[in-house]
Amino acid sequence: MTRMWNAGIAALLALTSAGKVWAAESTLDSVKKKGFVQCGVSDGLPGFSNPDAKGVWQGMDVDVCRAVAAAVLGDAGKVKYVSLTAKERFTALQSGEVDILSRNTTWTLTRDASLGLTFVGTAYYDGQGFLVNKSLGVKSAKELDGAAICIQSGTTTELNVADYFRANGGMKYTPVVFDTSDQTVKGFESGRCDVLTSDQSQLYALKVKLSKPEEAMVLPEVISKEPLGPAVRQGDDQWFKIVRWTLFAMLNAEEAGLTSTNVDGMLKSDNPDVRRLLGLEEPKGSVLGLDDKWAYHIIKQVGSYGEVFDRNVGSGSPLKIDRGINALWNKGGFMYAPPVR
User: Which residues is 117 bridged to in the sheet?
Assistant: First the structure.
C-alpha cells in the first residue's frame, strides 16, 4: 500500500513538474523574456527572405516575422533571423531553434499532420512552374521530354515533377538535385540542366539572380497547388493564434483601407470594423494575451498585406509579380480573413 502511495505521489509530482516546464516554455513567455522573435527564413530568396547589400533581411516572409514582433513586443525590429535550407527548416522549428518558420514553405497534409508543426494560414498562393533558356526553343512544359531538370532537395518540387511527367504520357527526365536555391541557379546557368523548376514566385526571384535574366523565360504551365505560409510548433495554441491573427490583421487592414501612412488618422474613424481592428472597441488585445494596440503596431510599422506584397514582390519591387489570386477576395483573389469581432 505504501509503495502504491509513493508511486502515486511520484506520478503526481512528475505531472506537476511537467506542467510547470510546459508553462515556462510557452513561446509567448519565451519571446517576451528574451526580447525578440527568432524567425526561420530561407537561405536567400529575393522578394521573400533575402539580406540586402547592408545585410538587412527583407521580403514577404521577413515582414510576417516583423509583424509578429510588432504585435507581441511593439517593435517590428526585434527579430533575429536564422537562415535555413529546405532540409534544415523543419528540424529547426521542431527543436525550438526558431519560434516561427516563415520560409516559402508549402502547406501539405504530411507536413501538417506528421512533423509536429502547424501552419497558421496562407501568406502567398503559388504553383510550381519551369524556367528555361529561350535558346532552348521550348514554349510548353509538355515539350520537356528527356530534359535535365535542376531541383532543390527537401522540397515538394521533386514529387510534383515526377507526378507531372508521369501523368503526361510518361515523359522522361533527369533530375539534377542541389541543396540550396543558389546552387540550383548556378547549376542552371552552367548548363548542368536544361530546366529549373520551383514555385513560380521563386522562379521569378531566381531569374533576377541570373547574369542574363533577359535570356530566360518562365513557361506558362502551373503544375501544382503551393499554398505558402508560416508555421509554428504544435501544442502552443496561444502562439499559434497570435501568429495566425497577425496575418489576418494585415489582410483585414488592406480590406479596410488602412495603411502604414494613414493609420494614425484612422484612429478617429467611426467605422466599427476599423475601430475594432485598432483596439478602440472590443475585442481587446487581451484575448490574445497582447496589448490593445497590437494590430495598430503591425499596420504602422509593417503595413497592410497589400503594402507588404507590393514592395516585396509586386509593382514596387524588381519582380513585378501580378497580384492575381493573391488579391483580396472582393477583388477577384483568394485572400480572405475572418473578421475582428
Answer: 233
Q: Are strands 124-126 and 226-228 parallel, antiparallel or unpaired?
A: antiparallel
Residues 31 and 60 in one domain: yes
Q: Which secondary-structure segment (H or E) carries 21?
A: helix 2-24
> For residue 335, is it within any domain?
no
Residue 302 identity (one-letter amino acid): V
DSSP state at residue 171: -
> Do the domain assignments include residue 195?
yes
Residue with cell 532540409: 87
Question: Where a domain ends, among 227, 252, 276?
Answer: 227
Check: pTM over 0.70? Answer yes or no: yes
All three cell numbers of 307, joined, read: 503594402
Determine the structural domain holding residue 159 and report its residue range. Answer: 127-227
Q: How many Å apart are CA 165 and CA 197, to the nearest integer? A: 13
Cβ atoms of 40 and 98 closer than 8 Å: yes
One digit per residue, pLDDT tens: the chain, 341 residues? 433 334 343 434 443 333 433 344 699 999 999 999 999 999 889 999 999 999 999 999 999 999 999 999 999 999 999 999 999 999 999 999 999 999 999 999 999 999 999 999 999 999 999 999 999 999 999 999 999 999 998 888 999 999 999 999 999 999 999 998 889 999 999 999 999 999 999 899 888 889 999 999 999 999 999 999 999 999 999 999 999 999 999 999 999 999 999 999 999 999 999 999 999 999 999 999 999 999 999 999 999 999 999 999 999 999 999 999 999 999 999 999 999 99
Last residue of a domain, one of 227, 252, 283: 227
Question: Does an H or E element contain 101, and which?
Answer: strand 100-101
Is residue 263 within 8 A of residue 230, CB to CB? The reply is no
Cross-strand partners of 178: 152
Residues 104 and 220 in one domain: no
Cα–Cα dist 128/314, whole Å: 18
Residue 185 lies in a domain: yes
Distance CA 75, CA 78 (A): 6
- The number of beta carbons lying within 10 Å of the beta carbon of residue 26 is 15
